[in-house]
């Protein structure tokens, strides 16, 4: 028998349990003719009688008693499984997957630290791959994204504000090349940038539009490599204000311009948004966002 027999087995189990066709039909919410048809079909497939029919109802045969025993055990197991699943959904424990743009780590990691302290049974996976993880496919529970507002129809999108970005340089770079005195002067300096010439980040667009290509002396696709290059003095480069100001080895070259700000979004999937685990993560990230230097609330 295949999966198409499960309805018939469930029907026969209820007949064996309550002893009448009408009683089973009421439990299952179907017509009594459907109950009779299911039982007859199952007996035909099994090549055995499951019930003795009589005016008072249906009495299980030996085969019917076996069905009743297995059916009761199966029903109990499903009930226990449902209870465990429901209970797990109410707990803040197990695996929590957060995906984020790397520059937002200064915002996300303090929030996750507090979350792990509050919920010791939680296990965190933090993914900062360049690709966009698909919440609808279960690749992550919570996402931090930058740029235009995400438009996937089944996602819940909340603004965390605008992240300030500006140019930073190492002390060794400043000692050798000085600090630009104006926007025009900046085009004469050496720069670190992304290897993605089509990047939509406003500060990388500014470099493309205002800095001669020969002045961009180092390009990398990974954010960590760009940060290391800036620290090593290869050139000036853009960092988030929280990251730049927290590093004593770096100097802020100019004050942040509004046109360099990045919109930051907190994204969850509608099916998981209200679960306690996701809500705990959302609450922690939003609270940290309110305290973060360089993140401006809309």
UniProtKB/TrEMBL annotation:
Keyword Signal belongs to the record: no
Keywords: DNA-binding, Transcription, Transcription regulation
PROSITE patterns with a match to the protein in the record: HTH_LYSR (PS50931)
Family matches, as InterPro entries: LysR-type_TF_proteobact-type, LysR_HTH_N, LysR_subst-bd, WH-like_DNA-bd_sf, WH_DNA-bd_sf
A Pfam short name: HTH_1
KW Transcription regulation (keyword) present: yes
Protein family: Belongs to the LysR transcriptional regulatory family.
PANTHER family, sorted: HTH-TYPE TRANSCRIPTIONAL REGULATOR (PTHR30537), TRANSCRIPTIONAL REGULATORY PROTEIN (PTHR30537:SF3)
Protein name, per record: LysR family transcriptional regulator
């Amino acid at each position: 028998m295949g999966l198409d027999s499960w309805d018939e087995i469930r029907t026969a189990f209820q007949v064996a349990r309550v002893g009448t066709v009408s009683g089973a039909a009421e439990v299952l919410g179907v017509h009594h003719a459907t109950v009779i048809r299911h039982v007859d079909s199952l007996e035909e497939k099994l090549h055995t009688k499951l019930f003795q029919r009589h005016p008072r109802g249906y009495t299980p045969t030996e085969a019917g008693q076996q069905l009743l025993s297995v059916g009761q055990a199966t029903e109990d197991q499903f009930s226990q499984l449902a209870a465990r699943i429901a209970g797990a959904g109410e707990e803040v424990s197990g695996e929590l997957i957060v995906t984020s743009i790397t520059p937002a780590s200064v915002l996300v990691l303090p929030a996750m630290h507090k979350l792990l302290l509050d919920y010791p049974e939680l296990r965190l996976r933090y993914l900062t791959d360049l690709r966009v993880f698909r919440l609808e496919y279960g690749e992550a529970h919570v996402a931090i994204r930058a740029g235009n507002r995400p438009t996937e129809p089944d996602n819940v999108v909340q603004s965390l504000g605008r992240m300030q970005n500006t140019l930073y340089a190492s002390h060794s770079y400043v000692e050798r090349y000085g600090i630009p005195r104006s926007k025009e002067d900046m085009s004469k300096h050496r720069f670190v940038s992304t290897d993605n010439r089509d990047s939509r980040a406003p500060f990388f667009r500014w470099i493309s539009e205002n800095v001669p290509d020969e002045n961009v002396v180092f390009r990398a696709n990974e954010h960590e490599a760009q940060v290391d290059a800036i620290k090593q003095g290869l050139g000036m480069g853009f960092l988030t204000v929280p990251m730049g100001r927290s590093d004593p080895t770096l100097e802020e070259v100019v004050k942040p311009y509004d046109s360099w700000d990045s919109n930051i979004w907190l994204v969850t999937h509608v099916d998981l948004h209200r679960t306690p685990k996701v809500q705990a993560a959302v609450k922690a990230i939003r609270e940290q966002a309110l305290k973060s230097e360089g993140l401006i609330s809309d």
